[in-house]
Fold:
Amino acid sequence: MNRNELPGAGRAPSPRWLAAVPLLALGVALGVASADVRAAWVDAVTTGCLTRLSDDMVQPWTIVNPLTSSTPVGTPLMARNFSLHTEFAYKPATVPHTLVIAGHWSVGPIGSDSIAPTNIDGIGLKWMTVSGAGETPLPFSSYPTALAADKLALMINDAVGSGSSGRLSGYRQYLVLTKPANLLPPGALQVTRIADNREVKLYARDFLTAAAPALGTIVDLSQATSGTCSLERVYDSTGIVNLGGGPPPPIPNKCDVVANQIIPVNLGTFSVRDFPNANSTSTPVPFAITLNNCTANAKPTISFRDKSNKPTTDKTILQLYAPGGQSLAEGFGIIMTNRSSGARIAFDNPNVATKYVMTRSGDTATIQLQAQYLRTGTVAEMKAGYAGGSAEFTFTFP
Structure:
């Protein structure tokens, strides 16, 4: 009963309520309420356990830092989080118990930074344990180290006598650049296994709390409580990276990309008389779009979209716009041409846009373009005015 609902709350208790107090006390003394007294928080001991690692506990790999020619050694390139669920059965115990999750790289050695080499020379994998205290590298050791621990203090009604529960332990993997980007091997940079048949071993063990190892210390598995949760899970050189059903995607070779980059192109001022015929054009103005710090294997492409979003039947003509208050020119458009191929650039929805290959030279990638006005209307349709255009360009790194 909630305290605010007690009879007489906020005023002197009635005689009837006072009379009920000794009766309640008498009932406890005689054991009338013994069933309620027996249900309490008591210590527990596990009677067995298993682990469950399902795909919904493994998040996809994400890029945390782009790989360019200027990316420093030691930079994490990709990361993902996942959890290991240890399920166990338990029963009441007379002394406190602690469930300890332990683990280690069992085959090595591994570098002092706890990064294991992979099938890609220059890309390593770091396995971290994640807790409220932050990230800790999974150690290389001949013996496991305590990674997580939970005291098994569970509410058990000993009229039932047993129960089941589980513990989640969190982990994070990184793919890390371990040598200069210009020394990486050619081709796709896809990590599919750990080098030299290295393994990761994880354990779940039930210890008496008084003897449980502290976090970060060596675990003597022989000291665990016999007949309780005792689990070992091994991830081999491919299983380490195949959590969640498959290896990580290839690491894209990239260039430095400046967000919201603007390249102004001044097409000049013309009279409508400078366009005597249909499809007449103005003098082309050359310009280029360049990316820097490209890795040796970067193969960037570029696509374009007309930011006006005006409907058009010809996707190669950029529609005109005029700033507020200015008269808009009519009967004209803007075309851009790839100077390498001579083909006109198409401006389309990003999902279906044509992608144009950029030319590599050293650690740069460039596309050479030119822009000019194009007459699109009849004499009656042409009108002088402001003739601006705006195209958005997007880079892709296959």
Q: What stands out?
A: Residues 272-396 form a domain with the Immunoglobulin-like fold (CATH 2.60.40.1090).
